[in-house]
Amino acid sequence: MIIPAFDFLEGKAVRLYQGNYLHKKFYNINLYEHFIEYKKKGVKIIHLVDLNGTKNVEKRQLKLFKEIISYTKIPIQIGGGIRTEKDINTLFELGFKRVVIGSSAVTNKMEVKKWFKIYGSNKIVLALDVNIINNEKKILINGWLQETNSTLEEIIDFFSSENLKHVLCTDISKDGTLSGPNTILYKEIVRRFKHIQFQASGGVSSISDIFSLKKTGVSSVIVGRSLLEKRFTIKEALKCWQNE
Questions:
Q1: Which ranges of the chain would DSSP assign to H, the alpha helix?
Q2: 129 catalytic, yes or no?
Q3: Is residue 150 within 8 Å of residue 106, measured between CB atoms?
Q4: Domain tally, the chain
Q5: What is this structure's pTM?
Q6: Is 46's pLDDT higher than 80?
Q7: What residues sit in the active site (predicted)?
Q8: Which of 7, 50, 87, 171 is catalytic?
Q9: Domain that holds residue 16
Q10: 87 an active-site residue?
C-alpha cells in the first residue's frame, strides 16, 4: 500500500529534516481536500505524527486530531509520544485505527508486550528508527536524540512472540531528505522476517523510488514530503504500486 503521511507541529503540517526540530518546513495545505482526494483515489490508510506529543505528552494536539477524524472515513494510524495505556485508549476513543509505538518498544518492553495482549497485533505498529553503521542497525529513541544498544533484529525477535505484525522501519539518514530510500535495508529485513508487514519510510522522492521499494517485498510505503511538494500525485503513486 501507499500510505500518505502528515506530521503536525503546533497545529500545522510540517516536515523535519532527519528528525531535527530546528530544521523544519511548514506546509500550508487544505487537509480536508487532501483527504477527500485520497478517499476518491482509493487510499486505504493514512499515517499521522504528533510532533508536539513526541516532545511533551501534555501538549498532544488532541483537538486537531479529533477534527481530522471527524472528516474522513479513511483509517488512520497515529504516532508521537505514546507511552501509556491511557494514551492508547484516548487515541482509540477518538477513532484512530492503529497506534504507532516508538521509544517505549525499547525502554518499556514488558509494558508494550502487555499492550499486544490487550489490543491485538493488528492495532499496534512498532516504529523502529535505525542508524546503520557497519550494517549494525542500532535503534534511536526520544526523537532520535538517543542511540540505544538495541538492534532492529533484537526488538523484532522480542515482540514476535506476541504475533508482531506491523513494523514501520526508518533509516534516519534518509528521513525528509528526498535522497532515495535504503532498498538494501528493506530487502534484507523482508527476507529475514517473513511474518512482518513492513512499512518503509524515508527518502522517497520519485515514482521510481516506489517501484524500487515494491520490489523489496515491503508491505507499504510511507510517503510524506514528496506528496506535499508535488513531486508526484497520489494517483501516480497508487498506480505505480498496483502495476509493478
A1: 31-41, 51-55, 62-70, 85-94, 104-107, 109-119, 152-160, 183-192, 207-216, 225-228, 234-243
A2: yes
A3: yes
A4: 1
A5: 0.92
A6: yes
A7: 7, 129
A8: 7
A9: 2-243
A10: no
